[in-house]
């Protein structure tokens, strides 16, 4: 492995416990790599909660149960968490791109039985495409055969904001970054279907930022400018005989969530071909390099005119453990 994890001894020990000490070295290496890759959904959710800033403690629960017969009665959830607004809580993590998340009755019963025995609330963290919700599992209700919850209901009852600190936000229309590029030397001219194409040697001569409405600001905080990396910006160019102005600006539509903004910031900070290693981020003292506290950056961006509004979602039903 190119990057040796600091807990390599634990990973090897776990693999050898499953395979035995006579296992093929190649198979051991493959299984260690797989363990180091981790369980992406659980790791991603854990990193998001840590980054949002209101998590006091979060750790995975070891799901190797003994005695073996206990598996017919209990299903150990994925995570134990404590937030500033409540806890300890149990969290089961699921990934499902269908509009309805479904549990078989026996699986649901084993989860509930474990939570009831521990005397702890049980929440469901659901990743639907790239959007996370966190709901009280008591909103998962029995349909004809299985226990179901729709994505719409999960959004209505979402606790990710009041527990972990997630928010929805909209950047101001017209905010953006603008590059002035000088045409220094014509390299090549070639015919095209629309006339001709030119290749120039060019140089960036100026960079400036605008806030809502397109007004130029020269005193924006560096973290405010980084908020633009979380948005799907519209691009356009203005040409003159000597220069090109390339602009990337916020349009009229759209809304984003803080937890999805984290994914954008991480993509901005790494190479394009480098996948996000959530397990590595779990051990990192600094999750992002560009914005230290996203909530504070949004509030500052609102004051500086780059953020248009910030929405703090409340669930339709506040769970009993938060009342």
UniProtKB/TrEMBL annotation:
Signal peptide: none annotated. SUPFAM superfamilies: Restriction endonuclease-like (SSF52980). InterPro entries: Hjc (IPR002732), Restrct_endonuc-II-like (IPR011335), tRNA_endonuc-like_dom_sf (IPR011856). The lineage of its organism: Bacteria, Pseudomonadati, Pseudomonadota, Alphaproteobacteria, Sphingomonadales. Coiled coil: none annotated. It holds the Pfam family Hjc. It catalyses: Endonucleolytic cleavage at a junction such as a reciprocal single-stranded crossover between two homologous DNA duplexes (Holliday junction). This is Restriction endonuclease.
């Amino acid at each position: 492995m190119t990057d040796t994890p600091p807990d390599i001894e634990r990973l090897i020990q776990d693999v050898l416990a499953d395979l035995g000490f006579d296992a093929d070295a190649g198979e051991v290496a493959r299984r260690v790599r797989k363990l180091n890759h981790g369980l992406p959904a659980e790791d991603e959710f854990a990193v998001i909660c840590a980054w949002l800033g209101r998590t006091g403690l979060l750790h995975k629960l070891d799901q190797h149960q003994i005695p073996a017969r206990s598996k017919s009665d209990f299903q150990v959830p994925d995570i134990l968490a404590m937030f500033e607004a409540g806890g300890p809580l149990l969290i089961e993590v699921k990934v499902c791109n269908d509009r309805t998340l479904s549990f078989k009755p026996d699986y649901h019963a084993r989860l509930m039985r474990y939570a009831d025995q521990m005397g702890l609330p049980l929440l469901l963290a659901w990743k639907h495409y790239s959007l996370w919700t966190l709901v009280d599992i008591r909103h998962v209700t029995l349909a004809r055969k299985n226990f179901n919850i729709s994505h719409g209901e999960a959004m209505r009852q979402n606790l990710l904001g009041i527990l972990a600190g997630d928010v929805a936000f909209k950047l101001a229309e017209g905010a953006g970054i603008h590059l002035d590029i000088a045409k220094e030397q014509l390299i090549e001219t070639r015919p095209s279907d629309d006339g001709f194409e030119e290749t120039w040697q060019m140089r960036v001569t100026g960079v400036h930022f605008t806030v809502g409405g397109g007004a130029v600001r020269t005193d924006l905080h560096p973290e405010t400018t980084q908020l633009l990396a979380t948005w799907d910006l519209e691009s356009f160019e203005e040409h003159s005989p000597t220069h090109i102005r390339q602009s990337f600006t916020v349009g009229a539509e759209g809304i984003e969530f803080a937890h999805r903004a984290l994914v954008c910031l991480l993509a901005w900070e790494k190479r394009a071909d480098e996948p996000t290693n959530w397990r590595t981020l779990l051990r990192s003292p600094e999750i992002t390099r560009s914005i230290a506290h996203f909530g504070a950056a949004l509030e500052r961006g609102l004051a500086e005119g780059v953020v248009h509004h910030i929405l703090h979602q409340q669930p339709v039903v506040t769970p009993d453990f938060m009342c």
